[in-house]
Amino acid sequence: MSQPLRLGIAGLGTVGIGVLRIIRKHADLLAARTGREIVISALCARDRSKDRGVPLDRYGWESDPVALATRDDVDVFVELIGGDEGPAKVAVEAALATGKDVVTANKALLAIHGQSLAELAEKHGRALRYEAAVAGGIPVIKALTEGLVGNQFSRVMGVMNGSCNYILTRMETSGLSYAEIFAEADGLGYLEADPQLDVGGIDAAHKLAILTSLAFGTQVNFDGIVLEGIERISIDDITAAADMGYKIKLLGVAQKTGRGIEQRMQPCLVPDTSPLGQLDGGTNMVVIEGDSIGQVVLRGPGAGEGPTASAVMADVCDIARGMRGPVFGLPANQLAPAAPASSSPPAPYYLRMALDDKPGALAKVAKVLGEAGVSIDRMRQYGHQDTSAPVLIVTHKTTPEALAAALEAMAGTNVVTGSPVALRIEAV
Amino acid sequence: MSQPLRLGIAGLGTVGIGVLRIIRKHADLLAARTGREIVISALCARDRSKDRGVPLDRYGWESDPVALATRDDVDVFVELIGGDEGPAKVAVEAALATGKDVVTANKALLAIHGQSLAELAEKHGRALRYEAAVAGGIPVIKALTEGLVGNQFSRVMGVMNGSCNYILTRMETSGLSYAEIFAEADGLGYLEADPQLDVGGIDAAHKLAILTSLAFGTQVNFDGIVLEGIERISIDDITAAADMGYKIKLLGVAQKTGRGIEQRMQPCLVPDTSPLGQLDGGTNMVVIEGDSIGQVVLRGPGAGEGPTASAVMADVCDIARGMRGPVFGLPANQLAPAAPASSSPPAPYYLRMALDDKPGALAKVAKVLGEAGVSIDRMRQYGHQDTSAPVLIVTHKTTPEALAAALEAMAGTNVVTGSPVALRIEAV
Fold first, then answer.
1. Is position A326 within any domain?
2. Are A126 and A46 found together in one domain?
3. What's the Cα-to-Cα distance from B149 to each of A292, A307, B144, B215, B252, rounded to whole Å?
4. Alpha carbon distance A25, B151 (integer Å)
5. How does pLDDT run across B276-335, given as a tens digit for each residue?
6. Theoretical Cys-Cys bridge with B301: which of B90, B307, B352, B399, CB 3.0 to 4.6 Å?
7. Per the CB < 8 Å rule, is A149 touching B293?
8. Is B320 contained in some domain?
C-alpha cells in the first residue's frame, strides 16, 4: 500500500464535519477502495473550543488557514471555508503554490477566480478539484469531464438551488404567495444568511458558470450569465402555468449557439411531465446533452452534510488514486474566452396579462403580437375579475427581440392592465 | 503531449462503428481532453468487405480477435464482439495476458467470468473497464466506483433493459396484450436475436450482477440472482396497478441485508410519481443509495450506437489519462463471496385474483391472509365479470414466506379462480 494521503481541512461547518465523519467511519473502506490510507493531519476553524459533536483533539490545529494549507504534513488542502474572496482564496492559492493538491466545495471561488486558480494549479502540477461545488452530492463534474468525455456537448441545464425549488414547489402545493413561502423557508433555515444568493439566483449561477466551462471548453465567465431570480414569480403564474401543463423552475441553461456561449439562470417553464418538471422540493437535477449520448439526467441531493461531504470525498479519493487532470477539463491555457451569446435562440414563451374589459381588447393584443412576428400557439381567457380578465398565451418559437418588441407595442394598446409577465418555455 | 494511445477494436457492429465515428470526428477534442492522441491501429470483424458506412482501409485488419488483441501496435484492446464464451473471452484473456488494457461493452462476459478476468487483469497490472456494459451511456460504473466512493451503499436499483420497459410502457399506453406488444417490439428490431435475453430478464440481470459487485465489494455472482422476466405480466395487471397508483417495471434490486446480499431482477410495482415510475419507453435508470449521499438517480439511454460508444470512449479516455484501478472497485482478492440472501426483506405486495361469485368469498380470502400474518393495506373489488369478480389487494409489509403461505392457503379456500398474481411493491 502507498503512503497515507494526509489532509488539512479548513472550515468545520456542516460539510467539514461531514467529511470528518466519513473519514472516521469508513477509514478501512476508503483505504481498500483507493489503496491508500486517508488521514487528517490538521484542522482549522475560527473557534477550536466549539462542540461540534466529533472529538477533534487527535488532529493538529491551525487558527490560520494559510498556515494549514502550507503545513509540511498536509498533502491535500480541503477548503470548506467558502466565499470568493478573503481567507478561502488566499489559502487555496497558498496551498497550490506550496505544491499541495486542493479540494474545495466553494462554487463562488471557482466561478469568479476559476481561470487564475486553474492556471496556478496547472503551473504547479497540482490538482484543484471541486465536485462538491456543483449540485452537491451529484457527481456531475465527473460526468462531464470523464463519464461523457467522448461527447461534444450542446446544452447543459440544471435546477441547482434547492431552496428556490423548495419555494416554488411549496407555492404550488400550498397556493400561498412568494412572500409567505419565502418567510417559511427562511424560518426553516433553508436560506443563506444573504437570501439573495438563493432567491436572486446567484448561488445557482455560480454553479452554472462552472458547468459551462467544463461543457464548452471556455474560461469561467460568471459575468456572462443572464441572471434573474425567482422574486417576481407569483402564485398566479404558478397556477396558470400548471393549467397549461407546465412547472416553473429556476433553470440554468448553458448552450452553444452560432453566436457564442449562452448562459442563462432564470425562471423558465418546463413541461410538467419532464424529469425537470417532476423535480419537487430541495432536490437538484442536471441535464447533459451531447452528440453521442443524447441526454443524460442526474438527480440527487444538492446540499446537506452527507451529500456534500460525499462529493468532497470523491475528489479526495481521486487524488489518492493519483488522478490529476486539468482543472476545467482542458489545460487552462487552452480554454477559450466565453464570449456571451448576442441573443438567445428562439423559444416559445408564456405570457400572462390582465386585459381591460373593453370590446376588441383581445384582438388588439393578438394584432400587436402578429405584427411583431410572434405567433400564438395556445391562448386562454378566463372570466373577468373586476374590470379586467386574465389572459394566458403560449407563443410559438420566437426570438427574445421579437417578443420584446411585441411587449412594447402591447403597452401602447391601452388595453393591458399593468405589465404582462413573460417567461421562457425551455424545451427539455 | 504523451505518446498516442493505440486501439485495436474487435467487433464492428453498431457499437464498434459508433466508437470509430467518435474517434474520427472528435480526434482533436479527445486529444485536448486527455492530453494524448487516440488512434486506431487495427480492426477485426467477420467480414472485411461489408459496407459499414465508414471507410476502414486506413486501419490494419485482423480476422482473428486474438491476433488483434496481441498485436504489438495495440495498447488497448476494445472488445465489442459480445457473448460470455468463445472469441470475446479468449481474446480478452489473451489481451490481458499480453499486457494490454481492455475496454469492453460485454455484460455477459463480466457477469459470468468477471472474477477470473479481474484476477487476470490485476495480475498483469492492466485495466479492464466496462462502463458500456451497464445501462449504456449512463456513467454508472464511474458513479459507484468514483463519484460516490465515499459511501457505504445500501441499495442499488435499476431499470436496465430498454426493450422490456418499452413493452411495459406500450402495453399501458395502448391497452394491448403482452403478446401483441412483444410482436410489435420484435418487428421494430428492439429485441435480441434470442428475445429471452430481454424479456426473460437475463440481459438486465447481467448488468445487475456487475452493479452488485461494485456496490458491495463482492465477487460477481450472476447465479445468485432471483430472476424473473416480464412474460407473465398481463394488461390486466398493468391497468390494475395504474388504478392503485403504480407502474410495473422490470426492476433490478441489489440490497445488503442482514442475511447476505440480495439480488433480484423481477417485475415490481413502483409508485407512478417516483422517478422509476415515470420512466417511459426505452430509457434506462439506475438508483444508487448510500449512507452519505442518500439517493442519486441517473437516467439516460441504455442502448444504441451513440450512447454505448460514448461509454466505451469514457473508458478509453480514462486509460489514456493513466487511470487504472481495480476492476470491481476493490482488488479482486479482497472481493468477498456474494452469499445470496436467504430471504428478501419484507415488502408490501400487490395481489390480483378473481373471486368466485359466492357469498363470503372475500371474507375467506381476508381470513387466510390474516392467519398467515399478511395484513391488508388497501383492497378493491370490481364488478362481477361472468361468474367471478376481480379483486386487488395491496398488503402491508410482509415477508415473502408469509405471502407464500397465504397464497397456498388461499388455493384451499375454493373461492379463487385460477392463481392469484402476486408482485412485490418496491419502496423507491
1. no
2. yes
3. 27, 12, 6, 9, 21
4. 10
5. 999 999 899 999 999 999 999 999 999 999 999 999 999 999 999 999 899 999 999 999
6. B307
7. no
8. no
Q: Cβ separation of A297 and B295 shorter than 8 Å?
A: no
pTM: 0.97
Inter-chain touch B139–A131, beta carbons under 8 Å? no
Rounded Cα gap, residues A252 and A265, in angstroms: 4
Nearest to residue A117, comparing CAs of A250, A41, A219, A33? A219
Do A67 and A195 fall within a single domain? no
Q: Which percentage of chain A shows pLDDT scores above 70? A: 100
- Strand A283-290, strand B283-290: pairing: unpaired
Grid coordinates standing for A327?
482543472
Question: What's the confidence (pLDDT) of residue A1?
Answer: 62
Q: How far is B132 from chain A (nearest CA, A)?
A: 10
Domain containing B70: what range? Answer: 5-133
DSSP bridge pairs for A392: A352, A380
Tens of pLDDT, residue by residue over B42-92, are 999 999 999 999 999 999 999 999 999 999 999 999 999 999 999 999 999
Cα gap A102→A98, rounded to integer Å: 11
**pLDDT tens digits, A402-417:** 999 999 999 889 899 8
- Both B153 and B68 in one domain: the answer is no
Residue A203 lies in a domain: yes
* Residue of B382 and A317 predicted with greater confidence: A317
Q: Nearest to residue A151, comparing CAs of B323, B21, B16? A: B21
Does residue A370 fall inside a structural domain?
yes
SS3 B42: strand
Are the Cβ atoms of A148 and B131 closer than 8 angstroms? no
Chain A residues touching residue B134 (CB < 8 angstroms): none
C-alpha cell at A38: 486517508
In A, which residues are within 8 Å of B131 by CB distance? 147
> C-alpha angle B389/B393/B396, rounded to 5°?
165
Hey, are the CB atoms on B33 and A330 less than 8 Å from each other?
yes
Which residue of A146, A216, A280, A288 to mutate against B (max B Cβ within 10 Å)? A146
Chain B nearest C-alpha distance from A15 (Å): 11
- Residue B144 and residue B125 share a domain: no
Q: Which residue has the higher pLDDT, A193 or B20?
A: B20
Coil, helix or strand for B226?
A: strand
CATH of the domain at B31: 3.40.50.720
Phi, psi of B81 (to 5 degrees): -85, -45
Instruction: Indicate the residue type of B364.
Output: K
Q: How many domains does chain A have?
A: 3
**Pairs across A and B, CB distance < 8 A:** 180
Neighboring chain A residues of B142 at a CB cutoff of 8 Å: 139, 142-143, 146-147
* Angle between helices B27-34 and B14-25 in degrees, nearest 10: 80
**Sign, Cα dihedral of A248, A252, A256, A257:** positive
Q: Same domain, yes or no, for A129 and A236?
A: no
Respond yes or no: is residue B207 known to be catalytic.
Answer: yes
Instruction: Out of A294, A298, A299, name the one closest to residue B307 (CB).
Output: A294
- Whether B166 and B225 map to the same domain: the answer is yes
The helix/strand count (H/E) of chain B reads as 14, 16
